[in-house]
Specification:
By secondary structure, this protein is of the alpha+beta class. The protein is built from three helices and seven strands, in the order E-H-E-E-E-E-E-E-H-H. It has one domain: START domain (Alpha-D-Glucose-1,6-Bisphosphate, Chain A, domain 4), CATH 3.30.530. The protein has a seven-stranded antiparallel sheet with strand order 1-7-6-5-4-3-2. The radius of gyration is 15 Å and the shape is globular.
């Protein structure tokens, strides 16, 4: 099954303020990943092309990296996930910045069922929570995207 899954959010800050957050991904001072709610993202030697890491049972390698603009990850697991996911920081109009996360992959076999029934829902919630973390770096009012009942159920089952 061909999968294109895209999340975007406009942050009311110039790109020069948002871009440095990308450099903290998977670091001790991570200002993107929702570590309090989801398994931590880890890369032993930081964000470098070729470095392998991941979160939970999902593993990937850094395929491309443009500091402050783009990180592309190639899936290693689960088996049957063939493709990439990426974070992008894009200048929008005025002093606004678009934060974008995309998955572009083909699933095969059991991975298709896993994606459709479980992983897609958890992934969508995780990315929206990550966007909350990014936005909350600049906001006094803390944003918290609520999980659907389906996400809460799967998180309960998978504990």
């Amino acid at each position: 099954m061909h999968v294109v899954n895209i999340h975007k959010r406009i942050i009311n800050q110039p790109k020069t303020e948002v871009s440095p957050l990308l450099e903290t991904l998977a670091a001790k001072n991570d200002k993107i990943w929702p570590n309090s709610k989801w398994p931590k993202i880890r890369f032993k030697n930081g964000l470098k092309v070729g470095e392998k890491g991941g979160h939970g049972t999902i593993r990937y390698a850094v395929e491309d990296y443009i500091q402050g603009e783009l990180i592309v990850f190639r899936f290693l697991t689960p088996k049957g996930f063939d493709g990439i996911h990426k974070f992008e920081i894009i200048k929008a109009s005025g002093n606004k910045t678009e934060v974008k996360h995309s998955i572009i992959m083909t699933t095969h076999g059991l991975a298709t069922l896993q994606w459709v029934s479980i992983i897609r829902w958890l992934h969508d919630a995780l990315i929206e929570n990550a966007f909350d973390v990014i936005e909350n770096n600049f906001s006094k009012e803390k944003i918290v995207t609520k999980w659907s009942m389906w996400v809460r159920l799967w998180r309960f089952i998978l504990k």
